[in-house]
Amino acid sequence: MDDVKKPGKIRNIAELARIAGVSAGTVSRALADKSLVNKETRERIQALAREHGFRPNQMARRLRTQQTGVIGVVIPLGHERRQHISDPFFMTLFGYLADELTESGHDLMLSRVIPGDDEWLDRIVDSGMLDGALVIGQSNQFDVIERVAQHYRPLVVWGSHREGQIQCTVGVDNAAGGALAARRLLARGAKRLAFFGDTNGPEIAERLLGAQQALSAAPDATLRSFPTHLASDEMANQIASHLQDLDGQIDGIVCASDIIAMTTIRLLHERGIAVPEQVAVTGFDDLPLATRMVPQLTTVRQDIAAGARAMVDTLRRRIAGEDAASTIMQPELIQRESA
Amino acid sequence: MDDVKKPGKIRNIAELARIAGVSAGTVSRALADKSLVNKETRERIQALAREHGFRPNQMARRLRTQQTGVIGVVIPLGHERRQHISDPFFMTLFGYLADELTESGHDLMLSRVIPGDDEWLDRIVDSGMLDGALVIGQSNQFDVIERVAQHYRPLVVWGSHREGQIQCTVGVDNAAGGALAARRLLARGAKRLAFFGDTNGPEIAERLLGAQQALSAAPDATLRSFPTHLASDEMANQIASHLQDLDGQIDGIVCASDIIAMTTIRLLHERGIAVPEQVAVTGFDDLPLATRMVPQLTTVRQDIAAGARAMVDTLRRRIAGEDAASTIMQPELIQRESA
DNA sequence: TGATTTGTTGCAATCGATTGCGATTGTCGT
DNA sequence: ACGACAATCGCAATCGATTGCAACAAATCA
């Protein structure tokens, strides 16, 4: 069967043109299904191409047409170098992005980059092989992104929105989200709160800020922040050590992510501390796994699917030349069992 | 600063050559840091390129050199069309693959494809923009992959290994894994077992087969299989319905994946059934979340990180022309709390 | 001094598809 | 029967970088 379908390898459009008895240009137009060439020859050429399993070289086409059909997805790991792409939040967002992009016929190129200089993003957008770029997370690279955004339009960033910024972002109002979580814990009667998260990136820092602001309505409550990395092996140790230090001193924990919350709950369970009765715990993100665990996680939802849709829509508009603006989504408290 | 760094836009190597007073060829060699050009001119040209923020067009380079530095990662969704890329197992494996590939300087292009004809894989490998391809899961497309593997060498597949196949696979011995899970349940004293999973793909089917074979050592035990899809919304309903039908009739469940197990445990919990006391549950995969849930999941581990490493290594060897063979990894029972 | 080697650089072909423009053939109207 | 016009198709330039080969100068050797 293989022999029947591929009588001789056709390597390029010119060879196909030769055995079809036409010129290369005609073949190109025929394969693009342009009405400029006669319907019969067009179909004959297409059939011939199918027989020989020939497909035009994408590199050449892209070089010539100056467009690639490829969207770059970039994950900068500035302040958290040990974090891997396999982090569930990245993966979830990335999964939705991939769904959106492939459904609209785009290809997708992933780069994880550990910023070694200020040029990492320039290298990516200037490489000449992208129609646009999506950056997931600002890390501590806000300024670099800002600089590139000045002259490169088809760029959309997942992250925080600062007043007057040039870069186009899609993201949730992190301060509002932090406030939601803290208020939920206060409403349950918790008074001695802890915050688990890494505040080196702007997003988590804003969540802490929001939580702190919520505390101002409850003068007798306290909130202390404990650095907690996301790299998952280390995270568990850090949390265990926090819990050790805090034994009996707290009754509520605002976690900066669902993963941190999940690990925290398990470690509390191991110490024989009941959730939410003795210590209430909130997450952040509302990953799919938040509903699958026991107890189900009370968390601040950012609608990742909607966010992905917004990013792709915005990017598409910017590629088309429009001047699409940032999107700030409102977080929502999802009240389940853990707080 | 922007104006200082980019006095005039340099669009290609020829323009750079002109303002450097040399030929395009020299610039090309200088930028590639070849010792063929004088060290001084080389550094002068590199400095000039840096000043102007110039980077050679990748499309042109790739067209000329016939190599792209891009590895395609393909996810065929043959029997499970509604499943999204955001499935945790895919994402986890993909994450590790991304880590491995980016660390070795490769770019990575993701395609999710719903096989509409027999040509989907041909389209991808013949597109001329890949150095090699990784296929995640065979779905029901074994034959298509087999055909392409006959003439396209740099192709590595995650999935099952059949006697005499041509395609190069990396995967776990699924039958052995299924047997491990079943034997664990039997060893706990369970006798009336159920299997939750979708046996349309070869991998899950083999897990069921292995479990059935393990049963032969326990004549008084039974195992019934219940179709359970992976698309997560539907999965929960199916499982709920199974549990309804099976109420009180079973004491052990072999789940085809950790996600199925996680959902099953939560639903059992909702029905007031204790895990593992009344019904023991095993998972499959050992995703990171298996340790984070309560109760921690007893599961059959496939070392996804090692698998990713093996896939990338094998692919690299095949790109280099070697004749690397398949890898069959041995699964391992990770005994935690759920069984 | 003449021949040969070494070190640098330029020239031009090449990768493979796309596309503007001109050439050819055939059709229609008058 | 002749010019206008449409439908097809071929020619050749183009996208931008790479690289074998030749050209040239300087340096070394006989």
TrEMBL record, chains A, B:
InterPro entries (alphabetical): HTH_LacI, LacI/GalR-like_sensor, Lambda_DNA-bd_dom_sf, Peripla_BP_I
Residue stretches in coiled coil: none
Residues making up the signal peptide according to the UniProt record: none
Entry keyword Iron-sulfur: no
UniProt keyword NAD, yes or no: no
GO molecular function: DNA-binding transcription factor activity; transcription cis-regulatory region binding
Domain HTH lacI-type: 11-65
UniProt keyword list: DNA-binding, Transcription, Transcription regulation
PROSITE patterns according to UniProt: HTH_LACI_1 (PS00356), HTH_LACI_2 (PS50932)
Top-level taxonomic group: Bacteria
Protein name, per record: DNA-binding LacI/PurR family transcriptional regulator
Origin species: Novosphingobium taihuense
